[in-house]
Amino acid sequence: MSYLAYVVAAYAVFAAVLLWDFVAPRIRIAQVLRAARLLARREAARGQAREQELKR
Amino acid sequence: MSNMHPVVRWFHQLGSPPYFDRFAARWAPWAFAAGLATMAVGLYGALFVVPPDYQQGDSFRILYIHVPSAWMSLAMFALMAVYGAIALIWRIKLCEILAMACAPIGAAFTAITLATGSIWGKPMWGTWWDWDPRLTSQLVLLFLYFGVIGLYAAIEDRRAGARAASLLAIVGVVMLPIIRYSVVWWNSLHQGQTIRVFGESSMDASMLPPLIWMVVGTKFWAIGSLLARARADNLAREAGKDWVRRLAGGGAA
Q1: CA angle in degrees (0–180, nearest 5) for B73-B162-B101
Q2: What is the pTM of this model?
Q3: Of the four, A18, B49, B158, B171, which is 20 to 30 A from B96 by CA?
Q4: How many domains does chain B have?
Q5: Under an 8 A CB cutoff, do A34 and B225 touch?
Q6: Contact B59 A11 (CB under 8 A)
Q7: pLDDT tens-digit profile of A13-41?
């Protein structure tokens, strides 16, 4: 194949950018869900602490 | 709701954030898979079936990713402006989200267009870059995408940010005919229109099928990406809500 290096470079750019396009929203979704999970856990712990305080 | 046309009812349901989340989570993988499968057929044809060009040798194979990406770069901008206009006029939250989700996808395809064009230009034109009307206008398109992404990110109120960025997207539509006709209006180093949707293309018919596969494949891919990105933004906006906590596995507070 002539100009092989150029063809490979162009297709590699295409693959790399599409890979980023595929991964980026997945990372964002995982971050948002993790933050929601942590927030729920923190609030649940705070609620428990308040209940114990009232019992004392 | 009961005497509503099913399509209209579905459209109203789609506007509900939890419903959209389920819809996007369900269909994005299918759209990505369809895009990958279609592009695989196109890439096989582009790299192994189509004979080398009699003048450009094998470097012309770059066209099979360059041209579909260039079309997507324009199509995503137009779609972003349409969603942006709907978001501005009818204040539909889902359209704000979809408009903003278009920007990084369009920017990605614009970057591919510029990079692959540059890589092709080096052996064919003898230069990586030229301040030619087509190349320069495409670069301005990339900056407009960055402007939309940046404006949306810079304004803390997500809805106000989306509306401001949507306005920029609508104004930026003026670039689309400039890019499209730049090779006609100005004496450009970039070649003129080769492939025509209406009328005869100046590309040999045997070279067309992989291009059609790639054009369809990039469309499917963009649908998958649009759903995934819109889902991410939708979840981020609804982060404090019970349904997101349930989805995250944290239980309802």
Answers
A1: 40
A2: 0.91
A3: A18
A4: 1
A5: no
A6: no
A7: 999 999 999 999 999 999 999 999 998 88
